[in-house]
Every structure is written in structure tokens, then in C-alpha cells.
């Protein structure tokens, strides 16, 4: 697991970025559906994007994030669980210039969450494909994790968004 180093730089190659850590985004998939995506961090010239459990025919609102679940995992002991976000990295320039992406709100995130995995993507079509492929896996693994809420499972599942909010 990789600790997330919070990158406070608001610029890439001298250009001011459009989004910040904690921004909640609506992604128009151009097929009548929208994804909910969190900016969990920025690394070099990439945004770290974490998908939530939202793929609907309308834009997500901030409450969909706050009351939703994100692609991630938890681990540790029942006394002290640690939460990790699954990340898909897309170049800041692409995200900032993509007309299908818009900010719907922002939340303050805790400082001690980590990445449970990451991959580089080129565009929102690949992000949507990631969501569609991962969804059935995360639903099944989440059912197993819910049977034992006090145990830490290091696997692909949904985690309540509130666990990474301040």
C-alpha cells in the first residue's frame, strides 16, 4: 500500500489547475449516464481520481458523494481501521479541458488515507470502462466484507465515503 503524499502544488508546468483535492466531479459519459468521481490527490501532472458508486442518468450531487461509497478497501485491526482509495490517474491537462467533467462540490478529506492501487488512464471512456468492469467484483466483495464489519479486509470493495471525510 502506498501512503498518499499530499501534493499542495496548484500548478503543472506553470499553469494553474482547475481542481483540488476533495473536489467532487460529475463525469458525463455521453451515453445518458454520469459517473461520480473524487479528486483524491494530485501526483506530478496527474489527478488521482477515485470513483464512487454512482452511475446514473442524472448528475451526482454533493449528497451522493457524502452518503455514497468509494472504490477502496480497509485494513488494520478492529481497534484501528485504515482506509485506502483506489485511484485512476489521468493527466491534469485532459481533465481540466474536458467539457464532460464539472465540479459539483468539495469536501475536506482526512490526511491519513492511502492508495490501495492505481493505474494510468487516458480519458473518461477508460474511466467508465474501469467502473463497469470493477462494479460486479466490488459488489460481491462488499457483501462478504459486510458480514464482518469489525474485521479488515484487504480486497476490492466499496467503503463508506464518510470514512475519508473530516
Structure write-up:
With 166 residues, this protein is of the alpha+beta class. It has one domain (2-164). It has helices at residues 62-66, 92-97, 124-146; strands at 2-3, 11-12, 15-16, 23-28, 34-43, 46-56, 69-77, 80-91, 101-106, 114-120, 157-160. Strands 1, 4, 5, 6, 7, 8, 9, 10 and 11 form a nine-stranded mixed sheet that branches. A two-stranded antiparallel sheet has the order 2-3. The longest helix has 23 residues, at 124-146. It is globular, with a radius of gyration of 15 Å.
Spatial gap, N to C terminus: 22 Å
Anisotropy-based shape: globular
Instruction: State the share of residues found in helices, binned by percent.
Output: 10-25%
Unreliable runs: 1-7
Instruction: Work out the number of β strands.
Output: 11
Q: What share of residues are in beta strands?
A: 35-45%
Q: What value does the Rg take, in angstroms?
A: 15 Å
Task: Give average pLDDT, whole number.
Answer: 87
Number of continuous helical runs = 3
Domain module count: 1
Return the string of H and E elements: EEEEEEHEEHEEHE
Largest sheet descriptor: 9 strands, mixed
SS content category: alpha+beta
Amino acid at each position: 500500500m502506498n501512503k498518499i503524499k499530499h501534493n499542495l502544488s496548484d500548478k503543472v508546468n506553470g499553469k494553474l489547475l482547475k481542481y483540488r483535492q476533495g473536489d467532487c466531479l460529475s463525469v458525463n459519459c455521453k451515453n445518458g449516464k454520469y459517473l461520480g468521481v473524487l479528486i483524491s490527490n494530485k501526483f506530478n501532472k496527474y489527478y488521482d481520481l477515485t470513483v464512487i458508486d454512482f452511475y446514473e442518468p442524472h448528475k451526482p450531487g454533493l449528497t451522493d458523494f457524502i452518503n455514497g461509497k468509494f472504490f477502496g478497501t480497509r485494513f488494520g485491526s478492529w481497534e484501528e481501521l485504515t482506509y485506502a482509495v483506489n485511484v485512476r490517474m489521468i493527466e491534469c491537462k485532459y481533465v481540466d479541458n474536458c467539457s464532460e467533467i464539472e465540479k459539483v462540490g468539495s469536501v475536506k478529506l482526512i490526511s491519513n488515507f492511502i492508495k490501495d492501487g492505481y493505474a494510468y488512464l487516458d480519458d473518461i471512456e477508460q474511466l467508465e470502462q474501469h467502473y463497469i468492469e470493477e462494479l460486479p467484483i466490488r459488489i460481491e466483495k462488499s457483501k462478504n466484507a459486510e458480514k464482518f464489519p469489525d474485521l479488515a479486509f484487504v480486497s476490492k470493495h466499496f467503503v463508506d465515503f464518510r470514512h475519508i471525510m473530516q
